[in-house]
From TrEMBL:
Pfam families: ABC_tran, BCA_ABC_TP_C. PANTHER family: ABC TRANSPORTER ATP-BINDING PROTEIN (PTHR45772:SF4), CONSERVED COMPONENT OF ABC TRANSPORTER FOR NATURAL AMINO ACIDS-RELATED (PTHR45772). PROSITE patterns: ABC_TRANSPORTER_2. One of its GO terms (molecular function) is ATP binding. Residues 6-252 form the ABC transporter domain. This is Unannotated protein. CDD domains: ABC_Mj1267_LivG_branched (cd03219). It comes from freshwater metagenome. InterPro entries: AAA+_ATPase, ABC_AA/LPS_Transport, ABC_transporter-like_ATP-bd, BCA_ABC_TP_C, P-loop_NTPase. Gene3D superfamilies: P-loop containing nucleotide triphosphate hydrolases. GO terms for cellular component: plasma membrane. Keywords: ATP-binding, Nucleotide-binding, Transport.
Amino acid sequence: MSEVVLQVRDLSVRYGGVLALSSVSFDVADGQIVGLIGPNGAGKTTCIDALSGFTTPSARNPSFSYISFLGRSIDRLSPQSRVRLGFARTFQSLELFDDLTVRDNLRVAAATPTWISTLTDALWPKRKVDAAVEEVLELLGLDRFAEDRPEHLSNGQRHLVAVGRALVGKPKLLLLDEPAAGLNPSETAELSKLLRSLPDRGVSVLLVDHDMSLVLGVCDQVHVLDFGSIIASGTPEQIRSDPLVISAYLGHGSSGVDEPAPGAGSES
Ligand SMILES: Nc1ncnc2c1ncn2[C@@H]1O[C@H](COP(=O)(O)OP(=O)(O)O)[C@@H](O)[C@H]1O
Ligand SMILES: [Mg+2]
């Protein structure tokens, strides 16, 4: 259980004059759900972008590994290569294809074409992809909506489609960017249940959200970002009572460190 899937060390990202991420370090171990929380603008999406290869770290010492995946430095790998190694991510804006059915949204995501797969697809229909898509549709309770277009679904169901698209490639590490944004309490509770089932399916999770209640309810470890730096790390219990965390949240006009959402966690 202690194998480190993701190791992040001294990771910084600068956008012009803004230091969006400042020397961030943390690990995600096999089977762990790790939370990254913080107020708007704290650097959460930037962190996911850097991990998934969508943005470039500002410090780039070639002899240092800023991001390692299963013991291997991935600093120089493209987003596609990271996906092939076992990364998957969602986007805050969901990025669904609204003119495709839910099933086809998942199918497209499951296909990672290479020249060899293009060749083998001509010989064998995509039976493996179809099986993976059907499995994920069922897991997420989306099978009933498989032939619908995402625009006809509720906000919560659309978020599930986004998570489903990330899951069909059978990732080892899932990076989720605010999957609970705009969900109602029962949808959030459903999402919590799903997230907690992922480690048993071999998927470790980095859960980025500013919904403290969701994160504190499902995560094993939580890191709190504020202005690009990690200001606190610990178990949900430790984070909930950390004075720096409370002041960062209250300082940004949030309502503070809430109790977990209904059904979101085992703690009361
Ligand atoms: N592409 C970009 N260009 C310039 N500044 C950016 C860009 N993306 C994010 N930022 C800035 O970086 C900081 C962190 O943003 P972000 O990672 O989106 O925060 P969060 O996801 O925690 O709300 C903010 O100050 C934001 O304005
Ligand atoms: Mg964000």
